[in-house]
Amino acid sequence: MMTQILLAAAGLVLLTLAADHLVLGASRLAARMRISPVVVGVVVIGLGTSAPEFLVSGVAAARGDAGIALGNITGSNILNLTLILGVAALIAKVAVASTVIRREVPLAVAAVVLFGFLAWAGLTVAVGVVLVLAAVGALWLLVRWAGEGRNTELAKQTLEYAEGDPESGMEPAAVAALPERARWQPPTWFEPVRAVLGLAGVLAGAQLLVANASAIAVELGVPQLIIGFTLVALGTSLPELVTTIQAQRRGESDLVVGNLFGSNLFNSLAGGAVVAFAARGSVPAAGVALLLTMIFTGVVAWALLRRGLTLTRAEGAALLAAYVLTMPLLLTA
Predict the structure, then answer these.
(1) For labelling alongside 317, which of 176, 178, 236, 244 has CA 20 to 30 A away?
(2) More confident residue, 86 or 282
(3) Is residue 67 over pLDDT 90?
(4) May I ask the CATH architecture of the domain 2-331?
(5) How confident is residue 16, by pLDDT bands cut at 50, 70 and 90?
């Protein structure tokens, strides 16, 4: 048992570190290729930061561990808008722009609702095609809105991410102020190699995590859905938690809300499609209670933010309590 726990923990660490390098390498490579910062932000960084969730779920589905796959997606979606958003509100009041609430957030909630209904019916290959088409449509809308200047903060944050030094936390201006000898400019081939190695690390970490999480579930006699909802979902959501805390401390509430709801959008559409294709249509219907809870938390978080465009500390504490209260639902899922 202890060996499986240590190996699962090692998988989580590898997954988190590799995902960072995957996103960083891909975003810097795209920036050097002069791809629009909007496209880099929405497509490269948006999908890249959700890679741990849907790759872990895909690996689990391919191994026949459907409970872990569905538990990870639904658990991550619930956790993002209860535990993580609640922590952000406890750090400081979350204030968000009205355009984000009117456009990006409803799109993410709609994606979660669509995934919930399709997962209730059962994820088949045909359902996977529907989810892929929905993901492409959502990406088109996000890129179009950002390109029209409705999300200028996205382009700004993308440039800072690609041109700055995330490893040291330095801003682009600080990096530019350094003397030439103090800067390290990687060769042209470095970023694609970093991205490929990051992807390989994410896949290896996902395999390590899923295999040992499945073994722990068998040894403890616990349903895979519970392991996926708790251990795996919490582990794959750690990057979002760290990013949220850092962004909220800098007062970037729009980035916090956009990141969390965007993660749910990509988890539901891209993650659901990956699971459907990896399992080749052998994913059973998910529990109604858990899926309704996932949809309900998304709608409630949207409603709280829409009312006054803020989220107070008291409301953040209520979201944290809501996460704890979702645990008993696993017994009926």
Answers:
(1) 236
(2) 86
(3) no
(4) Up-down Bundle (1.20)
(5) confident
Domain ranges of the chain: 2-331
Going from the C-alpha of 217 to that of each of 8, 122, 204, 227, 235, the distances in angstroms are 12, 23, 20, 7, 16
